[in-house]
Amino acid sequence: MKYTRYDLKRDNDNKAFIAVIFLILVLAFLFGTVIFKLFIKSPISSNIKTDSVSNRSNQKTDTKSSVNLNNSKITKFVAVQGGIYQSKENADEERNLLTQYGTPFTVTEDNKTRVFLGIYTEEQAERIMKSLTEQKVENSKMTFTLNNNDLCDVEIAEIINANIQILNKLAEKNVKAIQTEDLKKWCVALKKVDKDSKNILILKDIQDHISKMPKELTKENVAENYIYLYNILKKIASK
User: Which stretches make up the SPOR domain (predicted)?
Assistant: First the structure.
């Protein structure tokens, strides 16, 4: 009778080798996770934040005194549009419809009136348009792309973003007013930019606009400020 010989030592060596490889993979995964958390940063968001408000009449902005360069070379803002009308009556009807979802504003160009719900970051706009579509409210978008070529451009984008967050907050039903003191201080504290920057005049225009804001912004101020930002974006955005 023949007997089969089993090499137990070799079998044990194979198991040990597999265990070592598995351990190395686990350690590599853990090490990679730590490195990711330490060194990989998410894109910069607005330096102006607004907290949740519940049955309060006033809201102050929480600001930082400096602007960080955005990791991206571009910044996008989106105006969510309800429609374009030649008839003022139709435009007013559309605006009244959109008041259920925010604080809309209108812009007249080439004898046509555009009705917008608001201006948002690209991510915010996607959520809002999805919600409108689900509620069978027709909508479209106008995208403004800003190039971040230097510190001047970055500060313009950050200030516009700060204004947008405040106006969007005012569109909420339980927010009656937002104080502008912190926003004004934040703008004054921004770093000085190169006076030869391409868009230096636009930056000064926006800073001057903010300095002249009332102490409190209310819902009555939303439309006029949206229109101002819309015109600024039309001037500076890439075609």
Answer: 77-135
